[in-house]
Amino acid sequence: xxxxxxxxxxxxxWLQIRDLPYFRGLLRAVEARFFEQVSLPEPVLDLGxxxxxxAATTFDRPLDVGLDPWTGPVREAARGGGYxxxxxxxxxxxxxAEQTFSSAVSNSVLEHIPDLEPxxxxxxxxLKPGAPFxxxxxxxxxxxxxxxxxxxxxxxxxxVARWYRSFFNRISRHHHCDDAPTWQARLERxxxxxxxxxxxxxxKALAVLxxxxxxxxxxxxxxxxxxxxxxxxxxxxxxxTSAICQPGYNxxxxxxxxxxxxxxxxxxG
Length: 269
Description:
Blueprint: E1 2-3, H1 12-17, H2 22-34, E2 40-41, E3 44-47, H3 53-58, E4 63-68, H4 71-80, E5 83-88, E6 103-107, H5 117-126, E7 132-138, H6 142-145, H7 147-154, H8 158-171, H9 180-189, E8 192-200, H10 203-215, H11 217-226, H12 239-250, E9 260-267
Parallel strand pairs: 3-4, 3-6, 4-5, 6-7
Antiparallel strand pairs: 1-2, 7-9, 8-9
């Protein structure tokens, strides 16, 4: 069976910003729309499922298995209805037999893993020959495109710009912001063939994400006190938020200087 995103058009932006800080919601909404272009043969593995919100709001039916190493998000994912089964485990030692899955996805996860190749090799092991592996990650444009860094560059304060970029990358927990040739070589060493990719999320959209880390701080308090990011998920309450995010959500899919890349690869064999 082929699993696809919602058959009816969805307002992915609203589905994200009603539940998440807007900077995270905008990025996830853009990525959710990309999954309308792909088919996922079942059973499907979500590698690094987190709290399960993305799967629950993107697909019509639950994915077969969500896997994540962190206890809190795993518990949230199990309650969220986005998966038939949620498993706590690590990507470099997947608790599944060879050729268990017919497809796999990983949404903004791989950039956070220091030692990537063992994870990719394990992912290839549990996929059937020819199975698609679809993922998205920040790329080599991410750091150069940061608006504050670019502003500091224009002022000639390049050492401060370098510090800022390093700081932002650290709080984003990024270990990899690589270009497509780097990913292609990494995939081929791990048993995959890269079929196609595109960059997305323009410098303007990235600025919304970047500044949102500051303006979204009140959401941290809300999450801590009330166990939810948004207290009043109502259209009128989020009208300004929606207006800020809408241009980034509506921009053309492919951005030459986009800060993220969507990859479609396939298990060799």
